[in-house]
Amino acid sequence: QVQLVESGGGLVQAGGSLRLSCAASGGTFSNYRMGWFRQAPGKEREFVASITWSGRTTYAADSVKGRFTISRDNAKNTVYLQMNSLKPEDTAVYYCAARSIDMSDYNYWGQGTQVTVSS
Hints:
The protein is mainly β.
């Protein structure tokens, strides 16, 4: 069983930056693809970015490409989301998720961290 704990959320002005962290425990971190998702009020949860177990390959939603960067440190069991040039529409609860190698969908989720971008 993997536990995920996000941190780093907060209130920032438009154009600012935040770095989210997600610390994992209870499993072999390098066995998991990691992802970030977000959910804004009244909207469905959406994919933000993901990274393979090795960290060599990353994916990002079109809405955040060029602004957000996902990375991981397997020695620290932590995945990061560096968010630059933040926009008010980035306001949401951000969730970290882990997907086992043998799973087709993310099967572990964190509790979420609030990101609020003021205009």
